[in-house]
Design brief:
Blueprint (H helix, E strand, L loop, with lengths): L8 H11 L5 H16 L12 H20 L2
Length: 74
């Protein structure tokens, strides 16, 4: 079954770029929806990292150092 959908010109042009020549508009929408769902599904990993306090502190220190190094380049 198909459903008519109204898009703004801006949305249409953006979707056209995503779909390219090889993909249908339906396929392009499904691709985008799938990517969004995958990005939001990070919650399934919550609590999966079972580490000692020492390991977590090392990880936090490394993240802080990486952030500081990255902001120096800005």
């Amino acid at each position: 079954m198909t459903k008519p959908v109204t898009l703004s010109n801006e949305a249409y042009k953006a979707l056209l770029k995503v779909k390219g020549k090889e993909m249908s508009f339906s396929d392009a929408v499904m691709k985008l929806v799938g990517e969004t769902v995958q990005k939001r599904d990070f919650k399934k990993f919550a609590g999966s990292m079972k580490s000692s306090g020492e390991t977590l502190e090392k990880l936090k220190s490394q993240i802080a150092a990486d952030r500081e190094r990255n902001t120096e380049h800005l």
